[in-house]
């Protein structure tokens, strides 16, 4: 496998609040990696750094093995809120990255119409965001991230706003998209089972600031389904992640004077 994204010795702060301290992480091409960690630790910040919306104060971010200072537009980023434009239809929202890249209206229409079916949105191309369910909105947002043409996708809690059944359907759908496209995907989630079920590796982010993450390989065989949760390797990993997150919550409590 070849390296797709790497953080090497990266430090970043908001004012006097340090978020990352000489942080290191390497993601290989075609991997699907889950990131999990306590709320407010800096997961979204990490994505904004990878996407080029923020720059590190120290250290290097590499794309395809090369230091990359201009990352904007090279990475598909799906932020926590779907940020669909209310006055644009599904097709117009999804086609936005192509518009920014200067494609003709006709080329955009053709490409979007060709892609809509595999996102389950063919019949909704002229609908406005307010007419869509949460799952559909997520799919439009995901399609927009894919149409940037980037083969690295950062998905920040893509399913958090969805109900249980839709969430499970979307997890399966995301997994099939990952297999079809061969893209490298990073997924932030607060759900330990979701983190394990989808990923090749789970990266647990701990500490304030975050230093070296704990990286855990998921040894549960693919294809996975809901019954994979009964696999002993699944149980063991869930327990390990839970213990890590719990000990980190205690450490924070102690620092706060608990
Ligand atoms: N633009 C900003 N300016 C100053 N502080 C910020 C900014 N964005 C985030 N922070 C702070 O940095 C810390 C990390 O935020 P971030 O959103 O990256 O965490 P997170 O792990 O993604 O949180 P959550 O799990 O709740 O989404 C938080 O304490 C947050 O309040």
Automatic annotation (TrEMBL):
- The answer to keyword Transport applying to this record is yes
Instruction: Fetch the SUPFAM superfamilies from UniProt.
Output: P-loop containing nucleoside triphosphate hydrolases
Q: What is this protein called?
A: ABC transporter ATP-binding protein
Q: Which residues form the ABC transporter domain?
A: 5-232
Q: Which UniProt keywords apply?
A: ATP-binding, Nucleotide-binding, Transport
Query: This protein's superkingdom?
Result: Bacteria
- List the taxonomic lineage: Bacteria, Bacillati, Bacillota, Bacilli, Bacillales
Q: Which GO terms describe its molecular function?
A: ATP binding
Q: Does the keyword DNA-binding apply?
A: no
Q: Which InterPro entries match?
A: AAA+_ATPase, ABC_transporter-like_ATP-bd, ABC_transporter_ATP-bind, P-loop_NTPase
């Amino acid at each position: 496998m070849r390296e797709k994204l790497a953080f090497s010795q990266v430090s970043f702060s908001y004012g006097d609040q340090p978020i990352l301290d000489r942080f290191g992480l390497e993601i290989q091409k075609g991997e699907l990696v889950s990131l999990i960690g306590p709320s407010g630790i800096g997961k979204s910040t990490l994505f904004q750094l990878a996407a080029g919306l923020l720059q590190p104060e120290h250290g290097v971010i590499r794309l395809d093995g090369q230091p990359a200072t201009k990352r904007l537009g090279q990475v598909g980023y799906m932020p926590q809120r779907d940020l669909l434009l209310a006055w644009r239809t599904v097709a117009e929202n999804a086609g936005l990255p192509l518009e920014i890249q200067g494609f003709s209206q006709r080329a955009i229409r053709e490409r979007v119409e060709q892609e809509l079916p595999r996102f389950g949105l063919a019949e909704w191309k002229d609908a406005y965001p307010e007419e869509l369910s949460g799952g559909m909105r997520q799919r439009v947002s995901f399609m927009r991230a894919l149409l940037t043409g980037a083969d690295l996708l950062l998905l920040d809690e893509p399913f958090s706003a969805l109900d249980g059944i839709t969430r499970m359907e979307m997890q399966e759908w995301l997994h099939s998209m990952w297999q079809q496209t061969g893209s490298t995907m990073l997924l932030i989630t607060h759900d330990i089972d979701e983190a394990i079920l989808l990923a090749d590796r789970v990266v647990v982010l701990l500490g304030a600031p975050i230093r070296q993450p704990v990286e855990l390989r998921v040894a549960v065989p693919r294809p996975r389904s809901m019954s994979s949760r009964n696999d002993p390797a699944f149980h063991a990993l869930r327990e390990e992640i839970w213990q890590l997150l719990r000990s980190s919550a205690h450490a924070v409590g102690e620092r706060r004077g608990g």
